[in-house]
Amino acid sequence: IMISPLPGVTPTKPGSAQKPLPGISALVVDEQGNPVPHGSGGYLVLDKPWPAMLRGIWGDPDRYQNTYWTKYTNHGYYFAGDGAKYDHDGDIWLLGRVDDVMNISGHRISTTEVESALVSHPTIAEAAVVGATDPTTGQGIVAFVILRATATPTPDTITTLREHVATQIGPIAKPRQILIVNELPKTRSGKIMRRLLRDVAENREIGDTTTLADTTVMDLITNGLKNAPSED
């Protein structure tokens, strides 16, 4: 742990990693490596790395260099692949892996952030969110949700969920499409395979499904999304 509040010292803020621990220097920077202002998001880096950090990947030095150091070679930053943002107090909030961070009209939004907003609605049991190419906003948010057993879908359910996300996060995070499903594509160990959901959202050929617990799930989701309404 390198970014964390100090119990009894730092006033805590639920959900925020807050500040780097003493001796650690971390920044949230933009694509060019410039620190972003408070209230903005970008990439989480360690701007003052030290010799005792991870020194390499056994048998694959090129992968180590490309994964952690290449993006900000000129700055000497260590980048582990996480997105983050500053709030208006300058506290750091982790957004997750950059592969799971969507760029909506220039705003960096975490898929986890939208999923959390969806499952906070009393009718939603589980949610998975992916980004899909959008000609207007760069990426559009596509959500797949499972209703609770006690919930019954109505003609207003999708609209209600969109507005709920907008209230929780902001209008920019309102999903372009929401599909109600009976099951999400999961491995036998229970991990949601977002890679396959991205294929569906991008209207691509579905990738390898051999690790799915139930391969028929993808057929149902693919057909369902084709008929799902899209927000203009």
TrEMBL record:
Gene Ontology CC terms, in alphabetical order: cytosol
Q: Which Gene3D superfamilies does the annotation name? A: 3.30.300.30, N-terminal domain of ligase-like (3.40.50.12780)
Q: Cross-referenced InterPro entries, in alphabetical order?
A: AMP-bd_C (IPR025110), AMP-bd_C_sf (IPR045851), ANL_N_sf (IPR042099)
> Which Gene Ontology molecular function entries are recorded, alphabetically?
acetate-CoA ligase activity
Domain AMP-binding enzyme C-terminal stretches: 113-191
GO terms, biological process: acetyl-CoA biosynthetic process
Q: Where is this region: Disordered?
A: 1-21
UniProt xrefs under Pfam families: AMP-binding_C
Give the enzyme's EC designation.
6.2.1.1
EC class, as a word, reads: ligase
PANTHER family given in the database record: ACETYL-COENZYME A SYNTHETASE, ACETYL-COENZYME A SYNTHETASE 1
Q: What is this protein called?
A: acetate--CoA ligase
Instruction: State the organism of origin.
Output: Actinokineospora iranica
